[in-house]
């Protein structure tokens, strides 16, 4: 937008820190230093203080949904420190005078984008104290930095926006008493020699807060805790570092101005400067940009199984979704989609689901957002999902569909933080009709549409959180569910084969989908519903990249088959070249569920009834494991075997079928249509 495609953008690496404290050059930025190992897998000790959903990471990842609707589309120590602490940013709240002045200063694309973001933050604020509670955190810090660099390299001439003074400070990393090793401090616990050469009994050797609720930190009868992790403290002595600190925002030198801070005036002036201004937003980038919803006409067509697809938005799930959308509506009537945020992708990846539906001409299908934490783990935790790498081969790649998400056509539908009083929000936002529905609401909508003779078939490709929540919340759910196909679980065989939770070596026999929410798996799989389990052993028989890629190359070419071929070729290439991608076969095997649901009656296969139970006892080394228990009354059908050669052929032919093919095949095709006048508007 700003015409600066020359600026490089770096991300955290996939390296880490050894047990001995050696910091490798490609260390990532995904975990706090105290928890950083040699991978990007780890607990969220401090990050769990940030909400996952509304007002938290979901809204920040999407900028409240404004990013997709506004921004243009692109492909593509010993250092002097100035600290701008909370004490300083607390002196520059976004008061009403500044807010309304900003509303009048939107003459550039960047000003408009920033104001839209600020307004959405205000409209979704949890109470009526926004103007007293929301501060100019990062933008004020940027202003202080720019002023410091502009005025004087040595900062002898002060700062335009903040009062500065030198202080001797330290950052608290552990809590007294020091030298008492209680299992909370990975820098010392289990190490004969502390990491980074730290001193035993020193200020870093005390208790480290383990989470939001830590009994060590709680003072009985007090609302104030005793832990000070991360606290910036002014001290004297050898532990102190001399740092220049911003103490407060400067008042506006113009006493007649409605804006009471000097930075407010500069902020609005700079954002509306015509020099170095933004080139365009998405609507100005393309002369004939338009948002069109594609919906099929099923009039006079009989309908097949009423189906809901529950996905955690892994790469394999998107291939499965395309496969389901290619099925004749007379066989599979896909009525809704659930997405979970506690699997292989963050909740904001829901936008890619909308893009796939748009590509395939199915903007009629509602998508419901599920919860972002496992059943029984609290809304701020990361138990189980912390086993998924945050960097390469994990969330980073899933959230971008391995860099291919931008090649998909953009859907007019997208996640947005828009909300309404009707759905429990403190106030209506500007466009409450655009509100993102929840998974339970989509469930209720699909259930309401059922004819008396109809029931719902559910295919789950991720953790069973959404389905478990529905079963627990809707007493009548089981009575309208015809059958459930669960892609997941690992049943130990005579070869004693391992599961696939490769980041938790102590848990040999769990499979990821069940491990990510063991309690939900127990609720669903030990219920009375008609369940078909597609276990890891069967998925592994459908995980040959080479065979499927060869089949796709020989099949007919459609936009969707080309996209799948591109995606799977990329996964295969990464698997062969980089150790961080050794597990890509997991995602290829997930496609088996969709294929079996659509083609099961035509495939040569064998099912066995097995009495199973699920381990969910809050023990990471065993949670999510499937146990064949002859004493159990819970019988599930297990897909034991199928003709794999026939399977690969069916997948390729199905994706290459010209019927029910993509309505708009790629962003390149969409961009071309936005660059020319629509036929119905041309002068004849």
From TrEMBL:
Residues 308-648 form the Inosine/uridine-preferring nucleoside hydrolase domain. Residues 413-432 are annotated as: Disordered. InterPro entries: Inosine/uridine_hydrolase_dom, Ribo_hydro-like. GO terms for molecular function: hydrolase activity, hydrolyzing N-glycosyl compounds. Belongs to the IUNH family. This is Inosine/uridine-preferring nucleoside hydrolase domain-containing protein. It comes from Aegilops tauschii subsp. strangulata.
